[in-house]
């Protein structure tokens, strides 16, 4: 007898189903897509457990659930009522199926409102299992299969992709989300949850689908308070010969809690790390605000390098002023999140108030990358910066100080991303030019030597005549006036710093007293003279020894925050012609020695935006070396380590100009035509400043060469 009972139990232990697939009804279930309590289509997929052994064996419909009758009963019952949510509808369908007309003890269903979510063609579904109440308690199936809400085909425009061309504009991402339903409120407000997902994805920007789906899963567990969620994202445009690429993940609230606990460092990491911080401003005194931010950064950590600055057209919110941007390289033992806290505290100290995302700001500091490739992803911070690779205003200054960096997520060199960026709105900012005079064109520096023994104009410029000479130069087009009180011609007698200052300082004061506001550079290699000159009104230091004659010249320029021109030279000025022997190529030697000068300046705290380089025509080079250097000036300028630095070329009236132009006399003033050719070559090779004696004539030469250069750049 026991054997027969056991066999019968085995025969009944099956999972046969009677299925009503996609029964369409019209009823009110919560709100429609416009948040109205209106009748709407509902599709019901109902699967009722029923052992069909007898009906199948005897081929008798009386021994099974009649799906025709069941569908009519369900349709009539559902359409006769209204429901506050899909959960209420599921309860009602379960109760209706348990009545004797149908008599289903176990019902599995998926109820869909196809028109309830504006951004989805499939709408929202509710998956549930209901069992007959006559059992007195929930069945094991219902306990192990809690109700789930399913959002299908949620269409969201988003910036996503590794390649720059993928990030040029938003593309369609298709989201599928399902989660365990903990409360009736979650079902009632599922349309709001869909809207939350859509708005969040639209405002983010990820390189990978993996990052996107994990971010949405975390959002739902943390913000919407779901216990378990599955998120799938499809990129239909990713693969040309496939419908889509997709990533699907399942996560729980417990998983994210454990992840957070494990990621919390138990021991403070005090290892020094290199981090790149971008800075920007487009409100008020942009340059001054950035300098103030950098000063505060220096007080809290080691600033190793600061890039040139760039004026950049705004990208995302375009109706706002032009930005000033750059990047600095810092060393700190602070964790990334603490470094972020410091940056944000500096922003607050300087008065930043965020009113519009990506809108105007007096100062902006962003952590863009860690040199060791460490990845950081949390609610407050993503490293590398999620938008870094599409922003020319970040990549261009970053590559100036770290030309070999590779994106740690993609393995792609950053220089490749910059090639795909639009740089039309990015222009180098030159602090040696007044704000309204910023230009990409080469500018003229007029020479005003207040010395009795300069090689071509000694004694011509006196304190009595300098104001008129300066005004004439400015009127003819000079943007910078270079005042020198120490001759650097071969064999010139060196004068004490006090005597040099007595020549230079009154001249600077006279120009400023006369209302001349043009940029003034002081041509000196004495830090004592330079300090007095800046105090008297000069703006730039022009040092023909690149800071080597005065040990504190570079630190002085750093402390004063003024541009300094570093010229290539060898030995002291009096004996420079005894150092004209170069091992191999003169261009290579000058490149290497200028690189050393740049590094000394950076180590002294001078930012790259305040560094001007000069190849040093006529200094410790013979005629052949000078012409070789001039002909390869562009190669020198394009050295990766010199990227976007300003360059000054000063071949005016030099001896080698006479040699190669056929002017054999010893009168430097007769070298005007050769100087014109040398200046033209300098401009076309990429010089930013040309230092000349004959401003009137050279202004015409520079104007024409600038026009050619501009045409070539297009």
From TrEMBL:
EC number(s) reported in the record: 2.5.1.15, 2.7.6.3, 4.1.2.25
One Pfam family cited in the UniProt record for this chain: Pterin_bind
Cofactor(s) this protein cannot do without: Mg(2+)
Keywords: ATP-binding, Folate biosynthesis, Kinase, Lyase, Magnesium, Metal-binding, Multifunctional enzyme, Nucleotide-binding, Transferase
Natural source organism: Schizosaccharomyces japonicus (strain yFS275 / FY16936) (Fission yeast)
PROSITE patterns membership: DHPS_1, DHPS_2, HPPK, PTERIN_BINDING
Protein name: Folic acid synthesis protein FOL1
Sequence ranges assigned to domain Pterin-binding in this UniProt record: 442-703
Top-level taxon of the source organism: Eukaryota
Record InterPro entries: DHP_synth-like (IPR045031), DHP_synth_dom (IPR006390), Dihydropteroate_synth-like_sf (IPR011005), FolB_dom (IPR006157), GTP-CH-I_C/QueF (IPR043133), Hppk (IPR000550), Hppk_sf (IPR035907), Pterin-binding_dom (IPR000489)
PANTHER family linked to this entry: FOLATE SYNTHESIS PROTEINS, FOLIC ACID SYNTHESIS PROTEIN FOL1
Role of this protein: Catalyzes three sequential steps of tetrahydrofolate biosynthesis.
SUPFAM superfamilies assigned to the protein according to its UniProt record, in alphabetical order: 6-hydroxymethyl-7,8-dihydropterin pyrophosphokinase, HPPK, Dihydropteroate synthetase-like, Tetrahydrobiopterin biosynthesis enzymes-like
Family according to the record: In the central section; belongs to the HPPK family.
Pathway given in the UniProt record: Cofactor biosynthesis; tetrahydrofolate biosynthesis; 7,8-dihydrofolate from 2-amino-4-hydroxy-6-hydroxymethyl-7,8-dihydropteridine diphosphate and 4-aminobenzoate: step 1/2; Cofactor biosynthesis; tetrahydrofolate biosynthesis; 2-amino-4-hydroxy-6-hydroxymethyl-7,8-dihydropteridine diphosphate from 7,8-dihydroneopterin triphosphate: step 3/4; Cofactor biosynthesis; tetrahydrofolate biosynthesis; 2-amino-4-hydroxy-6-hydroxymethyl-7,8-dihydropteridine diphosphate from 7,8-dihydroneopterin triphosphate: step 4/4
């Amino acid at each position: 007898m026991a054997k027969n009972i056991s066999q019968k139990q085995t025969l009944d232990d099956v999972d046969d189903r009677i299925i009503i697939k996609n029964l369409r009804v019209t009823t009110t279930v919560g709100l429609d897509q416009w948040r109205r309590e209106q009748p709407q289509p509902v599709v019901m997929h109902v699967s009722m457990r029923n052992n069909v052994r007898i009906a199948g064996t005897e081929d008798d419909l009386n021994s099974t659930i009649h799906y025709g009758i069941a569908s009519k009963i369900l349709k009539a019952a559902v359409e006769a009522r209204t429901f506050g949510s899909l959960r209420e509808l599921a309860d009602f369908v379960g109760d209706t199926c348990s009545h004797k007309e149908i008599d289903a003890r176990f019902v599995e269903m998926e109820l869909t409102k196809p028109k309830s979510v504006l951004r989805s063609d499939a709408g929202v579904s509710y998956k549930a299992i209901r069992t007959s109440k006559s059992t007195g308690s929930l069945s094991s199936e219902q306990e192990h299969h809690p109700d789930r809400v399913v959002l299908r085909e949620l269409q969201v425009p988003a910036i996503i992709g590794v390649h720059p061309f993928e990030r040029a504009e938003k593309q369609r991402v298709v989201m599928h989300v399902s989660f365990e339903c903990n409360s009736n409120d979650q079902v009632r407000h599922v349309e709001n949850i869909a809207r939350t997902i859509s708005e969040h994805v639209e405002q983010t920007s990820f390189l990978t689908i993996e990052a996107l789906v994990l971010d949405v899963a975390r959002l739902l567990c943390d913000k919407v308070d779901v216990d378990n969620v599955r998120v799938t994202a499809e990129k239909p445009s990713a693969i040309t010969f496939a419908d889509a690429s997709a990533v699907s993940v399942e996560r729980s609230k417990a998983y994210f809690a454990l992840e957070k606990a494990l990621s919390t460092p138990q021991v403070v990491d005090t290892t020094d790390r290199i981090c790149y911080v971008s800075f920007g401003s487009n409100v008020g005194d942009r340059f001054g605000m950035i300098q103030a931010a950098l000063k505060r950064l220096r007080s809290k950590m080691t600033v190793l390098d600061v890039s040139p600055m760039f004026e950049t057209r705004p990208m995302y919110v375009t109706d706002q002023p032009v930005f000033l941007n750059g990047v600095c390289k810092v060393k700190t033992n602070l964790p990334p999140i603490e470094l972020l806290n410091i940056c944000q505290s500096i922003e607050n100290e300087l008065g930043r108030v965020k009113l519009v995302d990506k809108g105007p700001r007096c100062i902006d500091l962003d952590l863009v990358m860690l040199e060791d490739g460490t990845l950081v992803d949390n609610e407050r911070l993503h490293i590398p910066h999620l938008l870094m690779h599409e922003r020319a205003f970040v990549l261009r200054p970053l590559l100036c100080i770290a030309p070999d960096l590779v994106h740690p997520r993609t393995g792609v060199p950053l220089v490749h991303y910059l090639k795909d960026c639009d740089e039309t709105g990015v222009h180098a900012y030159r602090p040696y030019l007044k704000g309204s005079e910023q230009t990409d064109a080469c500018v003229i520096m007029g020479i005003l030597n207040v010395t009795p023994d300069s090689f071509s104009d000694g004694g011509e410029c006196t304190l009595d005549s300098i104001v008129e000479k300066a005004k004439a130069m400015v009127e003819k087009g000079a943007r910078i006036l270079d005042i020198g009180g120490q001759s650097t011609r071969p064999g010139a007698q060196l004068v004490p710093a006090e005597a040099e200052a007595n020549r230079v300082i009154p001249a600077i004061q006279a120009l400023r007293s006369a209302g001349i506001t043009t940029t003034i550079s002081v041509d000196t290699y004495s830090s004592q003279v330079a300090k007095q000159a800046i105090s008297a009104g000069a703006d730039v230091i022009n040092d023909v020894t690149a800071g080597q004659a005065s040990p504190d010249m570079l630190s002085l320029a750093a402390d004063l925050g003024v541009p300094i021109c570093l010229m290539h030279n060898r030995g002291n000025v009096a004996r420079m012609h005894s150092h004209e022997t170069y091992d191999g190529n003169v261009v290579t030697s000058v490149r290497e020695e200028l690189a050393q000068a740049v590094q000394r300046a950076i180590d002294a705290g001078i930012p790259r935006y305040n560094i001007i380089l000069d190849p040093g025509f006529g200094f410790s080079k013979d005629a052949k070396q000078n012409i070789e250097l001039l002909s390869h000036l562009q190669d020198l300028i394009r050295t990766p380590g010199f990227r976007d630095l300003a360059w000054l070329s000063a071949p005016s009236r030099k001896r080698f100009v006479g040699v190669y132009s056929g002017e054999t006399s010893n009168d430097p003033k007769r070298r005007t035509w050769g100087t014109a050719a040398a200046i033209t070559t300098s401009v076309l090779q990429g010089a930013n400043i040309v230092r000349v004696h004959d401003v009137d004539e050279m202004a015409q030469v520079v104007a024409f060469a600038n026009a050619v250069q501009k045409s070539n750049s297009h």
